[in-house]
Write a structure and sequence with these properties.
Helix content is 71%, strand content 0%. The chain is built from 14 helices and no strands.
Length: 305
């Protein structure tokens, strides 16, 4: 190359240099995995998925079939349909009362677990203290303790507090049972929020609580939805605490109500299936609305910031 061509190719002092476009060619390993995926016959993918869906969805179809099929019918199709089983369990079996009690317990456990776990998780994520590692280990070890082992001591405590046959006893027990895991999850979500954001808020005149409320709390929304939804679902489905602490029928929950539908000598399959559908519908609706937040929340909590 001559000096003249070099001078011609050189950019003028006032001209902005445009960087070359980035190389978007996938690496060799990614191209190899893509080729291997394209070479797999599609039936080898769809057949296992179809078998998995069959084993997963058939029980749901079966319980729905018994719930809407007339008594004595042996048809494998939900036709003709009837609502007699739903009317029976809702009115005659007091499932309307059970539903209200379960909903009240679930919402109360959701709120109490989220608030307490938020405070404890923030302390674990932002403060260093001498027994922090031991405390975290104790929280983890508490998850290996079966809930049945807590029934006798909790019953004695609630009996001394005159809280037997009270919804408050179940709410407290469920909250205490859910707190360890919830605090660990919330602390992981808070660690993913850069500490510099809070420091910038302090410089702007916020105190610690205001900085947390304005800066950190909005970023924790997916994590709070994940923790709160699991607390609600666990309280909604839990059987032991409600069976142990609630004695009168007007205080019972849906899992205990389902147990009453199974007699010693016979089982009303239609009523039992209708009760199961009633118990499953709120959970399905909750997860249908929060599935995006749930995936985002657990993805954020799985990455250490």
């Amino acid at each position: 190359m001559t000096a003249e061509s070099t001078l011609t190719a050189a950019p003028s002092p006032g001209t902005a240099q445009v960087p070359p476009p980035p190389d978007r060619t996938p690496p060799a390993a990614a191209r190899a995995r893509r080729r291997a995926w394209d070479e797999v016959p599609r039936w080898q993918i769809y057949l296992p998925l179809g078998i998995y869906l069959l084993f997963t969805l058939v029980p749901f179809y079966w319980i729905l079939l018994f719930a809407v099929r007339p008594a004595g019918s042996t048809s494998l199709l939900p036709w003709p349909m009837t609502t007699a089983h739903f009317e029976k369990v809702w009115n005659e079996r007091s499932f309307g009362v059970f539903f209200q009690n379960s909903l009240l317990i679930g919402v109360a456990v959701l709120i109490s677990t989220t608030v307490v776990a938020l405070a404890g998780g923030y302390a674990l994520a932002r403060f260093d203290f001498r027994i922090k590692k031991g405390f975290m280990l104790a929280l983890l070890c508490s998850q290996f303790v079966p809930g049945a082992l807590l029934l006798v001591p909790l019953f004695q405590i609630f009996a001394e507090l005159k809280m037997i046959n009270s919804l408050g006893s179940v709410i407290i027990a469920e909250t205490v049972f859910q707190l360890p895991l919830s605090m660990i999850l919330i602390s992981g979500f808070i660690r993913n929020v850069p500490y510099s954001l809070e420091e910038a808020a302090w410089v702007d005149g916020c105190n610690r609580f205001s900085a947390f409320r304005i800066v950190v709390l909005p970023l924790l929304r997916p994590g709070l939805v994940a923790v709160g939804s699991f607390a609600f679902v666990h309280a909604w489905n839990h059987f032991l605490f409600a069976l142990m602490f609630l004695s009168s029928q007007d205080k019972q929950t849906i899992p205990v109500g389902l147990n009453t539908l199974m007699g010693a000598d016979s089982v009303d399959l239609g009523a039992l299936a209708a009760g199961g559908v009633i118990a499953a519908v709120p959970v399905v609706i909750v997860f249908g609305f929060i599935q995006k937040w749930l995936v985002t929340g657990f993805s954020a909590g799985a990455v250490k910031g």
